[in-house]
Predict the structure of Aspartyl protease family protein.
Amino acid sequence: MIAKNPETRYFLFFVLFWVALLGVASLFFGSWQSHQQNPNQELVSQNSNGVIEIKLEANRQGHYVANGRINNEAVTFFLDTGATSVSVPESIANEAGLKKEYQARSQTAAGTVNVWGTTIDTLRLGDITLRNVSATINPATDMDIVLLGMSALGQLDFSQSSGTLTLRTTDN
């Protein structure tokens, strides 16, 4: 039903225009903000003479965040050289099919928590694939991000310079 009154039609057009404009702006700024938190959403790997290399850009807070996979399940990693092992929130562990192997206690920034030890069959960052990675399942966190600790990072060569972290491996 189209309004017959010209003022009503102009008003409806005006409202629809602004709703559409705000919708497009919301999509644009949501994507922009996501990129600010994780500038490494699509990793580009370089493979030269058996050496696979990935360069990660630091986010605005100076942290390295990157998309990857655990057992073919898409995840977001927060690289943490201060963490002993990979720490997976329980909800992500369930989605990735991780099994609780043994109970343990872990010291975190929030204090000591009960966790479950597990093994990640495959962990991927770009073209770098790590197998049989020691990890913990943390039921005490509701974050949607995986802490990528030294049980994974220790299998790689890495160096940092001017806001760029370079990860390298030869074992694939």
Q: What stands out?
A: The first helix runs from residue 6 to 37. Residues 31-35 have pLDDT under 50 and may be disordered. Helices lie at 6-37, 90-96, 150-153.
